[in-house]
Structures are given as structure tokens and as C-alpha cells.
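Dear colleague,

Following up on yesterday's call, I've attached the two folding results inline so they're easy to grep. Please treat them as preliminary; we haven't cross-checked anything against experimental data yet. The first protein's sequence and C-alpha cells come first.
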Amino acid sequence: MFLEKYLNPTYLHLVYNNYEDFYLKSLDEENFYKVYMLLKQNNFYFIEDIILNYLELFEIDVEYVENAILDVKAVLKEDFVNKIGKNMEIIDKIIELAIKYGENKITNKE
């Protein structure tokens, strides 16, 4: 499992307890890496917590995640990462927005 590259043993153990093995094995390592790097480039200092509690974020195409982060950043303005860190429920909003971007992209192709 590739998650060992991103998590310390404690977080890894918690992820294995929180998620089913078949789900973890279904994760796309390349997309996971892209989303991880996007978060890192935006100075998200709590990526391990996001992995632990919002692993579904790493399933979404990085383009849609990036657009959602930019939208949230536009609303929260300065220090947006710290604001997200203090209210992790904002990650839910990022996920919702990213999924909507994905749905709109699919709809627009039809």
C-alpha cells in the first residue's frame, strides 16, 4: 500500500482502522499524489488529518480539487489555510465543490 509514503505509523494505523481494506486498495496512487502535492504547494500543514478524515478528497480529479480550493480561497481571503485548519468542515465544502466541478465537466461533454 502506497500510503506508507505519506503517513507516519500512527496515522497509517488509524487510516487502516477507519477505512475498509478494499477501499484503500482501490485508491489511485497517481491521483492521490497529485492532490497531496496540490495541498502541500498551498501550505496545508494538516494533510495527514485530511487523509485520516477526508480520504475521499484524494479520489477526485486534481483539477476539480484545485478549482474548489481556489473558490474557497477567494471567499476566505488571507490566511485561508489556517482558517481551514481551525474548521476542518470546510474540507467538506471543498469536496462538494470539486464533485460539482466534475459533474459539470461530464455534463458539458454530453
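Below is the second protein, in the same order (sequence, then structure):
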Amino acid sequence: MNPIIIDNYITLLRAGAFKSKNNDILPMSLHKWRILGNMAKEHHVQTFLADGMALIKNSDPNNAKNLPGTDDIGLSEHTKYDVEGNFDASKAYLVNTVAKRRWEELREGEMNDLENISDETLQLLDIIIMNADYAIDTQINIEGILFLGRFLHMNKGLIDSTKLNHWLKLTKMTSMANMQGTILTDIFDFPQDEIPFLTKPYHKAEDIFMETLENTFDKHRIPLFTCLELAALETIFSRFSGAISIVRDVEE
């Protein structure tokens, strides 16, 4: 796994999703930038990436000079992210039958308590469960983690933390919630005081997140032998172009 690609990837996602101001961009070859763009497409976070690039280009000229154009890495046709509707947490599913029954019962009870209903808290629970369900089937849902952070930002002060943490215990989601919260704080520098469910750091969260990135990186990197072939071709092309220029100069 290339650490420079990973550092730039996280920096741009953090800038795009949470408008971070500490955005040091490391110089990379266009080949590496294209790997980064392909990773964003696979994780469905290309709009966060493009937004991060735009933020830095508009506010930080020193780091902007290290960025390619979005067209150069295949992000020119990214779809604008709809924070309200693009990530559908209603599809969340619990494998544990006991936890699933409790989840359905608490949702029904909350929906019937019209005077004390907390829609935002229910939605937050669904997002946490959706991300947990994804992690069980595959790996970390990076799109879902960023959506979780955006949802917390947008609904700050509207979450009933007492209800939420009680529901997390009932549905056996406390540990998974802590993992998601720890990824937000440790990877994306998200303010811990804005995460009402982060009761205990999940010590393996960063390792699990990095494993997800590493697996994606391995899919899109070009093998060493191919890289050497490309380098040789570039050298031949460069010399060939130079020879043509000399001939043209002589002809003129």
C-alpha cells in the first residue's frame, strides 16, 4: 500500500466531507492520482473527493499546486452527493434475530409516541446499523462513515443520546458504533464531542479501516513489471519525440 496515496486520499475526503482546513497535499505522479480516483469510485465517494479538491484549490494555493485536474483522474462526471437521499439507511438489516426483533419493537414504540418521538435519533441508529451490516458482509463502508459524520454535523443538538445509547445496547450495536465513531475521530479528525455514542475507543478501528483501503489499492495498482514496461515506453516515446523535433529543425 502506498502511504502517500492513502494520506492524500484521507486528506481530500476529510476536506470534502467536513470542510477541514488542515489539508497538506503531497506531490504524486498522475498514475498515482488515477489510482486514487479509482479508489474513490469504488468507495462511492468521488464527490467528496472532488469537493475536497475544489476546497483546497479555492483556499490553499500552496497545496493546490500539488493537485491534478479532476478530468485527469476521471472525476469530471461525478454526481453531486445528496446528503439527504443518496445513502439509504432504510435498507439496514440485523442478522441477529433477537436484536432484530428488539430493533423493530423500539422503532414501532418510538413511532407511536408522537409527543416524544425523535426522528433524528432513529435515523442515526439506522445509519449505524447500516454501516455495521456492510462491515459484516464486506469491510468498512467509507461512504457510510462520511455520511454518518455529515449527519451528526447537520443534526447537532437534535440527537437524544440517552435513547440512542439505550437502543444500541438493546440491538447489540454498542461495539460497532464505537468502531464507527473511532474511525471518524482517529482517521478524519472529527470532533469527539459531536459523537454522542462514542463511549469507548475501538482500538482496532484504524487497522480495519486501513485494511479496507489496502484491499482497494491492490485492485487498482499496476504490477511492478507493468510499471517498468510503461516507464520504458515513456522513455522511448520521449526520445522518439526528441528525434522528430531535431529532424523538423533540420528540415526547416
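For the second protein, one point worth flagging: The mean pLDDT is 82.

Best wishes,
A.L.
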